[in-house]
Amino acid sequence: MIIVSNSSPLIALSRIGKLFILRDLFGKIFIPDTVYQETVLQSNVNVQKENIQKAIDDNFIIVEIPKTNHAFKRTIDFGERGVLNLAFDKKSVLLIIDDKKTRNEAKELGFRVVKTSTLLKRSESLHFISSYTDIMSELEKLGIYLPK
User: With DSSP H G I counted as helix, E B as strand and the rest as coil, what are the percentages for the chain, rounded to 5?
Assistant: First the structure.
């Protein structure tokens, strides 16, 4: 299955040095160029930029420009439009999206969607991480609040 991620999972996990969770779960993930712009090129958080760029350099995160330009029912952000358009290009996809409005749009379009917090719970059950609660607390200390 092909995995396409929005920016929030990358931002959250890169800031605490835990991008390996996505790699351990999926092997590789795809992001649209809009998410790359948002998380690396336009970011002023060095640890985030460095960790995401390293994952790209290691070919764990693959950046692509979507060919599709779908007209969506909801008003969604630039990066999220890129995620959904890339999902149309890739077919058989699981999307990692935390924004509720975009998750709803994706589900209505027939895509499978998962939140970062769900992946963290799965990672704990697979023993990739020791504690879901500890990671959520670490993120909250940085002002990052993921939907549970």
Answer: 55, 15, 35
Task: Assess contact for 63 and 36: CB atoms under 8 A.
Answer: yes
In the chain, what are the domains?
A: 2-140 (3.40.50.1010)
Q: What is the dihedral of CA 10, 71, 99, 53, to 10 degrees?
A: 10
Do the beta carbons of residue 139 and residue 12 sit within 8 Å?
A: yes
Q: Which residue from 120, 83, 87, 121 is spatially nearest to 99, judged by alpha carbons?
A: 83
Q: Render 34-52 in DSSP notation, one character per residue.
A: HHHIIIIIT---HHHHHHH
Number of H helices, E strands in the chain: 8, 5
pLDDT digit string, tens, across residues 12-60:
999 999 999 999 999 999 999 999 999 999 999 999 999 999 999 999 9
Q: Half-sphere exposure of residue 110, counting CA atoms within 13 Å on the CB side? A: 5
CA 140 → CA 16, 136, 137, distances in Å? Answer: 11, 6, 5
The structure's pTM equals: 0.94
